[in-house]
């Protein structure tokens, strides 16, 4: 009787245990993980796979996604997959199968970094967005561009090479000092309030974000001192290359440049970039009138009102996915963290978009008063003079 009971336990299929509406079950069954994992098989070409049985690459990819989806360390991820039945089912392991340990998870990531296959991560990110479009998720007409900074994992106060801004740490030489806004400081004796630059040592992720879907469609990583405006054109070019079609681009003042305005106009994209003060305080009356007319257009005002949504997206990445601090050293491994973090957030968002009713999808668009402007995009394009 005991032997018969043990055989019954071993033959249990997790598909009959994990609820059909469980998030990880839906995540597994909604996406083509085996297809997405194929490019990463090159990481193992000519070498023996790590792990006692040579784990499938698709399983290692899904385990890695879990790590960023739930903000888990390698050890926590190992325990999660081993102890959680939904996690086992998502990854593709049976009830009695041995799961990868933290060393296997770390080595999978290390192979991608050591062989400089960070381009495969970008391809994976793009494949997720392409899958969304193929499934009927309609990309909205307004795109938001901004950057988010991530501090290096080193302690800048204790590191001898980082006693002042501008120096580089030997532990993380790819990182750089960057300025992200200002902070107010109050003198406790006089009560005087002064503004000082807010410095950080680390990296930046430059993101192209679609307002309607709530998906990041493009990511570019750089050291912390990389100017935001430098990343704008490459992000838009990547969107165009990946057939992400939109009519309006909005961003903060850091992206206000004649070159970018001209680039957007060339591609029939209305730029709703917040203008710097000198645009309308120019000594030339003709230029002043031009930029005032541009700022008075409905598209400009409507797009700037929803620019805050990318800040919410960044807030989610830092609060729930650990993106405020780098997990690893080096720009390549930071790229790993960036693409997997935003890719994981996109997967969560896509689950909602694919399962919600058509009525809900209609609410993702602009208000009815704004939709009329959306249909008249070309009339809002002004020539750059």
Q: Mind explaining what this structure looks like?
A:
By secondary structure, the protein is α/β, with parallel strands linked by helices. It is built from 16 helices and six strands. Strands 1, 2, 3, 4, 5 and 6 form a six-stranded mixed beta sheet that branches. Helix 2 runs parallel beside helix 6, helix 4 packs across helix 5 and helix 4 packs across helix 7. The protein is globular and about 75 Å long. The N and C termini lie far apart (88 Å). The N terminus and C terminus are likely disordered.
In short:
The chain is α/β, with parallel strands linked by helices. It is 46% helix and 14% strand. It folds into two domains: 2-115, no CATH class; 123-380.
Quickly list its features.
385 residues; 2 domains; alpha/beta; 6 strands; 16 helices
Summarize the helices and strands and which ones pair or pack.
Blueprint: H1 2-10, H2 23-30, H3 33-37, H4 57-69, H5 74-83, H6 85-91, H7 102-114, H8 118-134, E1 142-151, E2 176-186, E3 193-210, E4 216-223, H9 228-241, E5 248-251, H10 258-266, E6 270-273, H11 285-296, H12 298-305, H13 308-321, H14 331-355, H15 358-363, H16 368-374
Parallel strand pairs: 1-5, 5-6
Antiparallel strand pairs: 1-3, 2-3, 3-4
Helix pairs in contact: 2-6, 4-5, 4-7, 4-14, 5-6, 5-7, 8-14
């Amino acid at each position: 009787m005991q032997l018969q009971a043990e055989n019954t336990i071993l033959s249990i299929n997790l598909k009959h245990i994990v609820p059909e509406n469980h998030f990880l079950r839906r995540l597994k069954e909604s996406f083509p993980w085996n297809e997405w994992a194929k490019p990463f098989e090159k990481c193992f070409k000519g070498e023996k796979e790590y792990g006692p049985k040579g784990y499938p690459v698709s399983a290692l990819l899904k385990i890695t996604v879990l790590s960023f989806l739930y903000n888990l360390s390698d050890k926590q991820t190992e325990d999660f997959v081993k102890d959680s039945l939904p996690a086992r089912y998502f990854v593709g392991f049976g009830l009695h199968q041995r799961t990868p340990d933290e060393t296997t998870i770390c080595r999978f990531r290390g192979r991608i970094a050591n062989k400089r296959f960070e381009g495969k991560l970008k391809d994976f990110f793009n494949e997720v967005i392409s899958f969304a479009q193929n499934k009927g998720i309609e990309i909205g007409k307004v795109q938001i561009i901004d950057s988010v900074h991530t501090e290096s994992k080193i302690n800048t106060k204790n590191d001898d090479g980082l006693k002042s801004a501008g120096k580089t740490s030997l532990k993380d030489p790819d990182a750089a000092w960057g300025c992200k806004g200002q902070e107010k400081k109050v003198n406790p004796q006089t009560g005087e309030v002064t503004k000082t630059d807010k410095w950080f040592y680390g990296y930046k992720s430059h993101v192209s974000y679609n307002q309607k879907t709530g998906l990041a469609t493009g990511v570019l990583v750089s050291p912390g001192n990389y100017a935001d405006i430098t990343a704008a054109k490459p992000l838009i070019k990547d969107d165009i290359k990946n057939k992400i079609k939109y009519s309006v681009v909005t961003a903060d003042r850091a992206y206000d440049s004649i070159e970018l305005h001209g680039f957007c106009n060339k591609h029939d994209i209305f730029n709703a970039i917040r203008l710097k003060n000198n645009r309308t305080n120019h000594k030339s009356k003709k230029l002043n009138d031009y930029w005032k007319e541009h700022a008075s257009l409905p598209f400009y005002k409507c797009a700037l009102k929803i620019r805050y949504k990318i800040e919410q997206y960044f807030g989610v990445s830092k609060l729930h996915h650990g993106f405020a601090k780098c997990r690893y050293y080096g720009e390549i491994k930071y790229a790993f963290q960036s693409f997997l973090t935003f890719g994981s957030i996109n997967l969560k968002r896509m689950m909602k978009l694919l399962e919600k009713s058509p009525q809900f999808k209609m609410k993702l668009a602009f208000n009815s008063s704004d939709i009329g402007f959306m249909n008249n995009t070309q009339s809002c394009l002004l020539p750059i003079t």
